């Protein structure tokens, strides 16, 4: 490479390579900190001032390329703030359940059971997300399409519950929850969970 080419490549922003399909997909997204900073028109001094990280440290992080040294989450949050982003605290299961309860109550359907937030288990959290994904017409019994969607969401919750139960039972069973399968489930370690895993392997289709 000529000296001129070196100077040009050093001054130009790095190209962004986006995740694709096929054999190259495993390479992931190659996006450097410098590329992100320059894309939003920030200088290293800007990022340092807004993130309270020394400019020299920002420069060192950029020099690491694709973060092969893996900066801590706290540093990444500071860099996010420095680039003009927002850091939001993750929603707790209690907050999620309260939000689902308020959503169901606001729909005003007298026949819909109220959301019980007494036991904040992963199963309850998954059901809460399913409730939030459907509109009030589902709770009023006026939307067959949303009823089907809610039932399928509940099916995925059941599958995730079965995965956790598999670990609790000490069983060497593996199955994924991407596909929507019409499988009955019992959390019995000896018969119920193995039968569910076998059903997932066959994955009977959801009723039409």
Report the sheet-strand fraction: under 5%
Tell me the total number of β-strands: 0
Question: How many individual helices?
Answer: 10
Q: Write down the overall geometry.
A: extended
Q: What's the helix-strand series?
A: HHHHHHHHHH
Count of structural domains? 2
* Percent helix: 40-55%
- First and last CA, distance: 63 Å
Sheet of most strands:
none
* Gyration radius over CA: 25 Å
Tell me what the structure shows.
- It contains ten helices and no strands.
- It has 208 residues and is an all-alpha fold.
- It has two domains: 15-82, 434 Repressor (Amino-terminal Domain), CATH 1.10.260; 93-202, no CATH class.
- Helix 6 (93-107) packs parallel to helix 7 (122-132).
- It is extended.
- The N and C termini lie far apart (63 Å).
- The model is unreliable at 4-29 (pLDDT under 50).
How would you sum up this structure in a few lines?
The chain is an all-alpha fold and 208 residues long. The protein folds into two domains: 15-82, 434 Repressor (Amino-terminal Domain); 93-202, no CATH class. Helices cover 53% and strands 0% of the residues.
What topology does this entry show?
Elements: H1 3-11, H2 33-39, H3 44-51, H4 55-63, H5 73-82, H6 93-107, H7 122-132, H8 136-139, H9 144-169, H10 192-202
Helix pairs in contact: 3-4, 3-5, 6-7, 7-9
């Amino acid at each position: 490479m000529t000296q001129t080419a070196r100077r040009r490549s050093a001054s130009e922003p790095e190209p962004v390579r986006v995740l694709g399909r096929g054999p190259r997909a495993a390479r992931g997204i190659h996006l450097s900190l410098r590329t992100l900073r320059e894309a939003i028109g920030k200088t290293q001094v800007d990022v340092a001032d807004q993130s309270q990280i020394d400019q020299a440290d920002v420069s060192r992080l950029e020099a690491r390329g694709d973060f092969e040294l893996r900066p801590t989450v706290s540093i990444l949050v500071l860099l996010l703030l420095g680039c003009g982003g927002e850091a939001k605290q993750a929603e707790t299961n209690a907050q999620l359940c309260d939000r689902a309860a308020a959503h169901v109550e606001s729909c005003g359907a007298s026949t819909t059971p109220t959301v019980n937030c007494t036991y904040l288990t992963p199963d309850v959290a998954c059901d809460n997300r399913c409730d939030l994904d459907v509109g009030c017409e589902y709770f009023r019994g006026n939307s067959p399409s949303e009823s089907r969607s809610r039932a399928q969401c509940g099916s995925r919750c059941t599958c995730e519950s079965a995965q956790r139960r598999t670990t609790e039972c000490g069983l060497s069973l593996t199955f994924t929850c991407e596909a929507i399968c019409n499988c009955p489930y019992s959390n019995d370690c000896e018969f119920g969970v193995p039968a569910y895993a076998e059903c997932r392997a066959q994955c009977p289709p959801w009723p039409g």
